[in-house]
Predict the structure of Chloride channel protein.
Amino acid sequence: MTRYYKAFIPALVASCASYLVFVLITHLNLGPTWNFPAYTNPKVGDIFYAVAYSLAGAAIGWIFILFVRNFKLVFKRLNLAIYLRLTIGGFVLGIISYYIPLTRYFGHEQLTEVLKSTFTLQFLCVLLLFKLIAIAVTVTAGWRGGFIIPLLFAGTVLGLIIFQLFPGQNLALITVCCMASLNACVTRTPVSIIILLAAMTGLHNIVPVIFASLTGYFLAPKLPLIQAQLRREKSNDSLL
């Protein structure tokens, strides 16, 4: 336990300091980043709904991981120079973004747009598929980029798909639970995702989100996708 606190407290201090600098530079307020629909009248049964929604999020997480691992295998077999990999990746990303502009960038502004707009179920499915492909191409072709915000966008689109299939449900609960489970499944960082979503979505009742994030984490593949986690697990195994 002492070792845990020795690692956690410096990380917490560094996070607070970096967040403060970020807010001062960007002139952002301390409110939520995205304006999700209000999550009103929470019930105990919402926990079971959250677990159900998180199953869909975890399934999409597995699909994304499959994309990444297969694209890695393709680029490894091609054995191209880095500038050729970047060119191919950029060409693929350009084609996707030309036909589906909402797949561009890391999804911060686009997430607000999909929440405010109305799209058909077919378009949302296409958007989700090609956003996952775009993220996977970005990280495997050598371009700089991360998982978290793009996967939050993908989780939002998944939530909108579920909401169109089951329109009587709570949209905020669906989308945030899908965001949590998808990210937790891919990144294997359930606690960080819970804190991040509580801050960025303004959802006050985070209990269902906790269940969704943990469900995504426990349904994650045994082999981590992130290389740092994989190296850490190998190091821990060598110590046993």
